């Protein structure tokens, strides 16, 4: 059940795109929408020559950022005042190094966070949204940059199935979307020969589970692909899907997250929303 949606906002033109996805979700699911306006305060590093007061420079830069934030907040307040559903605008300020954890803390109080996919576009912020994905404990709906949402609910969803806790979490959070879809395709990618030839039915168990939730589901085994991300994106294009559901994979290295190859590839190239959970 989706009753509390958080959408990342930063005052850029991508806010309009993110809201085009978040607002209909809140409306259709009778959910509360929280807009999270994130104001980045610049990190200040001392030059070490004693000429400038680092404290003074920091204060001036912070004031400039907050004044810009005031402008964005005023514009967004006007937008949110027009909502015919329950909504609120919140504002947080943090340096880039702390912004990811700040957003993750806020996301824990929502059912779903909407943000732009973090790779391969002009305003990409990978470190921030890797932190949100891996540390918030919530599913993220990563939407494509510069591509506003189409009209109507998601009708054709591709589930990149893998029997893992990450994918299971994504499925549980995506069921409200799947129940409203006309078709959900469980896509299982393998570089081996067709599993049916070995008497195996991969995907049958998850298909039964989804069917018990009233989801119209079809299993598709995609064989002979060594690149899982390319196979999933090809399937999305082949059936004209409008959402991908999948687990987000990665590992921690020196306190930073390193994404798995397929996760990064999908979040770099997908032109439809990706509901992802870790």
From TrEMBL:
Stretches assigned to the UspA domain: 154-277
Superkingdom assignment: Bacteria
Signal peptide residue numbers: none
The family this protein is said to belong to: Belongs to the universal stress protein A family.
Identification of the protein by name: UspA domain-containing protein
């Amino acid at each position: 059940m989706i009753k509390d949606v958080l959408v990342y906002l930063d005052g850029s033109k991508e806010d309009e795109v993110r809201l085009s996805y978040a607002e209909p979700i809140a409306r259709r699911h009778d959910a509360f929408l929280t807009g999270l306006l994130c104001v980045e305060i610049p990190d200040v590093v001392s030059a070490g020559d004693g000429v400038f007061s680092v404290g003074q420079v920091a204060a001036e830069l912070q004031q400039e950022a907050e004044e810009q934030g005031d402008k964005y907040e005023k514009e967004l307040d006007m937008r949110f005042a027009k909502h015919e559903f329950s909504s609120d605008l919140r504002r947080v300020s943090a340096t880039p190094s702390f912004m990811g954890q700040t957003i993750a803390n806020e996301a824990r109080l929502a059912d779903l966070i909407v943000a732009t996919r973090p790779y391969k576009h002009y305003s990409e912020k990978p470190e921030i949204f890797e932190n949100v994905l891996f540390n918030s404990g919530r599913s993220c709906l990563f939407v494509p940059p510069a591509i506003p949402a189409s009209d109507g609910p998601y009708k054709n969803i591709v589930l990149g199935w893998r029997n893992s806790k990450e994918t299971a979490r994504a499925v549980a959070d995506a069921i409200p979307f799947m129940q409203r879809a006309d078709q959900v395709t469980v896509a299982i990618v393998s570089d081996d020969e067709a599993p049916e030839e070995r008497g195996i039915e991969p995907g049958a168990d998850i298909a039964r589970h989804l069917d018990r939730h009233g989801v119209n589901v079809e299993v598709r085994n995609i064989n002979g692909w060594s690149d899982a991300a390319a196979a999933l994106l090809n399937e999305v294009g082949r059936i004209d899907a409008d959402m991908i559901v999948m687990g987000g994979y990665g590992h921690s290295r020196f306190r930073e997250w390193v994404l798995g190859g397929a996760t990064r590839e999908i979040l770099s190239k997908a032109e439809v929303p990706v509901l992802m959970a870790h």
